[in-house]
Amino acid sequence: MNLAESNTPAQDAIVVQDLRKVYDNNTAVDGISFRVRPGEVFGLLGPNGSGKTTTLETIVGLRTPTAGSIEVLGLDPLRDRQRFTELVAVQRWVLAVSATVCPAPPRPASQTQDVYEAGHSSPTQHNPDLPD
């Protein structure tokens, strides 16, 4: 049985509530909120400078939010750092959440690399719009 067929509501994999991040006088993220359920595919879209990277870095605990709250698998990425890093990994801007909490078919490392390379015109040609 998958989560969509379950009669009991699943815990949200990610909950962002009123997230705000300010650098000096520059507001990078201004009060966004969203939820991501286990198994959902979720993306952040927007022009350069709209706060996508800051949002992701804050979700995974690389930055401290100015205001708001974040939970990933019910954990605060900063306060619950040890357990958080056991369940969540970030590589080349792909957020991976433990399959034991968010069931999904296992993906071999070669497929993860394929997903990254798919964003480039070819494995040897660099796309300047994507991070190295």
From TrEMBL:
Gene3D superfamilies: P-loop containing nucleotide triphosphate hydrolases (3.40.50.300). Residues 30-79 form the ABC transporter domain. One of its GO terms (biological process) is response to antibiotic. Residues 121-132 have a biased composition (Polar residues). The keyword Calcium does not apply. It holds the Pfam family ABC_tran. It is found in: Cell membrane. This is ATP-binding cassette domain-containing protein.
